[in-house]
Design goal:
The chain is elongated. It contains 17 helices and seven strands. It is an alpha/beta fold.
Length: 450
């Protein structure tokens, strides 16, 4: 009875903690009821819509935490074979956070039913404070902790590459050492390894200033447009990989572009990626460097370099294919119109109906060819996808006709106005088709085409 009472109490507390609008609970009150002792804040799923796997896992975790307090082995509850795991923290000036980060990670991993053998690496990227000294003391205290020092600051991407290269276990996980993530939520990633070789978090919700949120949204859109990268939160520093997949990648980035490049290259290899919501906490010590102008400029320079290299070919090909489909459909539209008006008496007397029919034939061709050939969508076509497509067709027609009328009223030469409106129509059509019409279904299984 005591076990069931404690399980129900801890479970109730966790449901309150992970609700979208949790009530305030004083820390002393929680301590008096031993809630902190027996609960490791499994708050990864902040949204109200939970998958069956996540609901089951949350219950398993609650039961495990209670049984651990009774010195009962939680491994009997799980059928998944424990993995070997390398955990690393890229650090720069985190002397105030690194001790709690490492010790909390050890506490969580030691009790995890998913991890058998593990190591922890602290990648010191040329910190100017006492981060290196603190990390070396931790390595002396805990045999499973190792320190890799860059000597001088080389950038976030270099720190990630060093951590991946230094990892020796079957799987690799990394997160930042700023305590903005709760390491217990690593469990919510590990539970998916039986189905996915890569599991990444997305901040739900993200606790950052409005300008930084706007910058992140723009960054995601740029990576999606130029590289076809479709994930919710590219730079969320809570990622789990099978080591053999990432150690073989030829990563070029040294700065903040590293996360995007890693995911792009994995997608190009057809790797399935699972996205999982994780909590994002405000930073309480130290200072963030991701918003520095030098970091942002470096990230854009690396993006341009990758786009000009082999990774930028996808959008180029899509634009060329989109143009080719446009030419093909124009020819089909014209051919159908000529055939109908010249080959049948009915349409010869109803030219508008003939044009409407030929235009409709061209749009159907555009829908199917762009869907399967230009953008590589292989899922079953849906009614709402067709609806979005014809909405874009209507928008394009409006831009073409009204834009031409406006430019002509302004006194522009008709051929120049035609060129401008055609270009504007093409650009609008391509962008809306890529980002809206032929978007993937709302699933976190990101199995991609090579």
């Amino acid at each position: 009875m005591a076990l069931l009472y404690q399980l129900s109490y801890v479970g109730f507390y966790e449901l309150i903690r992970t609700s979208p609008n949790p009530p305030r609970l004083h820390k002393k009150t929680a301590s008096r009821h031993h809630l902190k002792k027996n609960s490791y804040a499994f708050s990864g799923v902040l949204n109200t819509t939970l998958s069956t796997v996540e609901v089951k896992h949350r219950l398993y975790v609650q039961l495990t935490k209670v049984l651990v307090s009774f010195n009962y082995s939680p491994r009997r509850l799980y059928s998944m074979k424990p993995i070997s795991l390398s955990i690393f923290f890229p650090t720069y000036n985190e002397e105030e956070n690194i001790t709690e980060t490492v010790e909390r990670t050890i506490d969580v991993v030691e009790k995890s039913p998913y991890v058998g053998d593990y190591e922890i690496l602290v990648i010191n990227d040329g910190s100017t404070d006492h981060t290196l000294d603190v990390a070396q003391r931790l390595a002396a205290k805990y045999p499973q902790v190792r320190v890799v020092d860059h000597g001088k600051n080389r950038g976030y991407g270099a720190a990630l590459k060093t951590g991946i290269a230094a990892a020796t276990k079957e799987y690799v996980f990394f997160t930042d050492a700023d305590l903005q993530f709760d390491i217990i939520e690593l469990q919510n990633l590990l539970v998916h390894l039986s189905e996915y070789p890569v599991v990444i978090g997305y901040r739900a919700p993200r606790v950052d200033p409005a300008m930084r949120l706007l910058n992140a949204k723009a960054w995601n859109m740029l990576n999606r447009f130029f590289f076809g990268l479709k994930v919710r939160d590219i730079d969320c520093a809570f990622k789990l990989f099978k080591r053999s997949l990432v150690q073989n990648l030829r990563l070029r980035s040294q700065g903040a572009m590293i996360s995007a490049e890693t995911l792009i290259r994995l997608k190009r290899r057809g790797v399935s990626i699972k996205e999982v919501p994780v909590s994002h906490l405000p930073r309480t010590a130290g200072s963030a460097t991701g918003a520095k102008p030098s970091v942002i400029i470096r990230a854009f320079r690396e993006m341009v370099a990758l786009y000009r290299g082999e990774l930028g070919l996808v959008t180029h090909k899509q634009i060329l294919k989109f143009m080719a489909v446009g030419v093909l459909n124009t020819a089909l539209d014209l051919s159908a119109y000529v055939a109908l008006t010249r080959g049948t008496e009915v349409f010869a007397q109803h030219l508008v109906a003939a044009k409407l029919f030929s235009f409709l034939l061209g749009t159907i061709s555009s829908l199917l060819i762009n869907r399967y050939w230009t953008f590589g969508v292989r899922e079953k076509i849906t009614f709402f996808e067709v609806l979005r497509f014809y909405a874009v067709v209507s928008i394009s027609l409006a831009i073409n006709v009204e834009g031409l009328n406006i430019l002509l009223r302004l006194g522009m030469y008709d051929l120049a106005a035609l060129i401008i409106t055609t270009g504007l129509t093409f650009g609008t059509n391509f962008v809306l088709s890529k980002f809206w019409v032929f978007r993937p279904s709302r699933t976190t299984d990101l199995a991609t085409q090579a």
